[in-house]
Write a structure and sequence with these properties.
mainly alpha, two-stranded antiparallel ribbon
């Protein structure tokens, strides 16, 4: 991962951050800081990968593939791969 000194907030990224903020917020009046929203998204990504990895030993490939996302997916029941980039 390359390190950058700034994060460009495009319109699409802003919409995603707003949706994620609503998920992380503890209520309708809560406005969590962006750092909390990003931390929650990163934790969710890491936990999702682990959950898929553990589930592949217990569930058939067709069931596991129902949980694939644009970011994480199980391929050929052999590995977890990132399809984000």
């Amino acid at each position: 991962m390359s390190r950058r000194t700034s994060l460009k907030i495009t319109d699409e990224r802003e919409r995603q951050l707003e949706k994620a903020s609503e998920i992380v917020a503890s209520g309708p009046d809560d406005d969590p800081p962006m750092s909390v929203v990003i931390d929650a998204a990163l934790a969710h990504l890491i936990q999702s990968k682990e959950n898929i990895r553990e589930a592949r030993d217990e569930l058939d490939p067709a069931t596991i593939q129902q949980f694939n996302t644009d970011v994480l997916g199980l391929r050929y029941r052999t590995r977890i791969e990132s399809r984000w980039r």
